[in-house]
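WP5 quarterly update. Target: Glutathione S-transferase. Source organism: Novosphingobium sediminicola. Length: 307 aa.
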Amino acid sequence: MSYPLLRLCDDRAWVEIRKGRGAVTWNDMERVFEGAAKAGQEWRGDEGGKLSGRCCISSSHVDSTLSLPYAVHGQDGVNVGQAVELAFPDDMIWKASLHGQAFVLHEDPISANCYKIRLTAALLGLPLSRRAYDIRKGETRTPEFLARVNANGRIPVLEIAGASGIRFLPESNAACWYLASGSRLIPTDRFAQADMLRWMFFEQYNHEPNVATLRFWLAYIGEENLSEAQKGQLGAKRSAGEAALRLMDEHLAKHDWFVGHGITLADIVLFAYTHVAEEGRFVLDDFPAIKRWISRIEALPGFVALN
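Structure tokens (predicted):
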């Protein structure tokens, strides 16, 4: 005799179990249980049949929009006493939290701040539509843009369409966090997560204002077109940018990644402008650990280039 058996791995505020025979979909299956359940609770299906279950993501909050139908299926022919565990791996929980949402990136394609969001989505396998603007033509300062997308007149902005309607999230690092929250790109350890944020703040305060600004001024505006005030800042920004890159290089000489043993948002946000720093006339050959780190990121599955 054989039958499918499911065992719950942890306490859940809401669980639904269904059973059926043959090639049936979730909606065609018979509900055998719905409600709160404790870790270790088991459900048995019919001999030769199928058993499927889903849970709410939070152990304390029931929200059917955060459930995963078809998440775990009992198997035909499971021997007596064997059970398939009803559990949710971290990546499954994270994907469920974004279920039913669609994303549009309002961007200028030359901007590495916008690219951070695109790279985050690509590494996580998230579909992302794109809406391009040219900031040099003032396209983010139009009355329509200011009224609908971002009153601050800046990009990137992540447009999020879901059960709560359409919402707009400005600021690149905030948008990256929204997409990656609960995924492998954000550490679960409290200190590691804070350390990741430390590097993200460093990127915004020490790195981006210097490395990114020189790239934009020199590669896209042209030194001859800069104002006298901008020309007067070139030396200070170069010194500050080189100091930021030197600090990164010293860290990466001892570690493959900025936090922990794998890529996190800290790497993504710092990679965006660092890998094109030579467009701002920084010399990356002076920072060999950074160059090795760039190669590691470019070799990741799902990687997409800026251009």
